[in-house]
Each structure stands twice: as C-alpha cells, then as structure tokens.
Amino acid sequence: MTEQRKQDMIDPARAAAFRVALGQKEAVKTGDPLPPFFHQLYFWEPEPPVSLGRDGHPRVGGLIPDMGLPRRMWAGGRLAFERPLLAGIAAEKRTICENQNRKDGRSGPLGFVTLRHEIWQDGALCLTEWQDLVYREDATPDAPKPRPPMARTDAETITAVDFTSTLLFRYSALTFNGHRIHYDLDYARDVEGYGGLVVHGPLLAQLLMLKAEDDLGPLTTFSFRATSPLMHFETASLCRNGRDLWVAGPDGRQCMVAKA
Prior knowledge:
Blueprint: E1 3-9, H1 12-21, E2 71-81, E3 90-105, E4 108-121, E5 124-136, E6 157-161, H2 165-175, H3 185-191, H4 201-216, E7 221-226, E8 236-241, E9 244-248, E10 254-259
C-alpha cells in the first residue's frame, strides 16, 4: 500500500479561530490539549486549480482511485484516541487507502473508499481515524429521492444547533475543504440536487464529539455514520442516550448516528 505522509505545525491560532466560529471563548496556548477531531483543521492538501475536480475537491486518481463517479460524500468514520494532540507542536499524518470497491446500489453504481489516517506527535501515536467515503453518479432531476430514516425519540439530553452560511464557509476555510456543496448554493442545488447548502458531515460529527465529551468525559473511541444531509437553514438537534448519539433534523429525520 502506498503511504502518504504530511507534516504540519499544530498552530494554536487555527484551533482558537475554530473555537470562536463555534461560539466558544476559551483561549488556546502552546502545549494545550486539543479537543477530539480538531486535527481536521490541519494537514491541508492544497492543489492548483488545474488539479481540482468540478466539485472543488482534488481530482481522484492518486491515493484515491478514480472509479468514474463524480459525486463525493463523507459517509462516516471511526476514531481511536490514544493521547491528546497538543497545540503548538509539530505533528505528522500518515495515510493509506485501506479499502476500495465498487458495487451497484438501488440508486445506481456506488464507489466505497476507506482511508486510514494516523496522527503522530513527538514520536507517539495520538489517534487513528478510518474515513469512509462514498462516490456516486450525478443526480437525475426526475428520480425519486430516497426516504430518510426517522430519528429516535428517547434522548436523555438534547442540544439545539443552528447553522449559517457563514459558519459553513468558516469551517470550509479552516479545514481547507473546497467542496462546493458547502458554500456554492447554485452548484449544490442545480448540479448535485440538494435543497440548500449542505452542512459538513465532519462538522456534525465534531459537534457530537464535543457533546459526548461534555456529557461523558474523555473519549477513547468514537464512530459515526451519515444517514441524511442537513441543510444550512435547518435547526439540528444533537441527541444522546447513554453512549448513543444522533443528529435529528427539524422534521424528525435522522441525519447522523454515532457511538462514543
């Protein structure tokens, strides 16, 4: 397997900017442990415009194979936390493509890719992340939309969260995510068939992780799976029952499920 390695300085200012975007006020100093999943803010992969696909992501064909399917979605992931990532200290991200396959689904051909990321700092493994991506064909305007599952209604704790196009833009900028469904309304609606700007799956997962840590304490593992897109104009409910967490849309549909 080909391994890709990237080094980055875990800049406290970037983590602090994300806290501000989330409405948090805590300062971030060199040596501070970062909250879980904040490594998403680092290890950018900048590419020149000629190397980008129409959706704003880097073209596939390198680490991620080209399966001829243009629409990309972050379907879910799993994380194992070994030790906190510390601000202000250099770190390394090691990535391999652990699995790839293509099969036919009810809505047409689907491509599945699993990337495994390891984040190392000062010679020690901080966390391992398995990132599940799905690729599919373009949406057909007259095709019936799948009915999303309904969320559980037995939450012990619920946190309501509102999103704005500004928050989505800031998260895209802080993670260097060029996917146009998160900031280009015309593209999201007219090309990919969404009803609005799509809230990033990793942003929903991030909010669930922060809720889980607040409610349950430090995380050792976390897994999540996206089940229905959430639009930027919708209020979401972050729900928890025991170690099960989920995101419900304003109509009660299930947008994401997770386990801490």
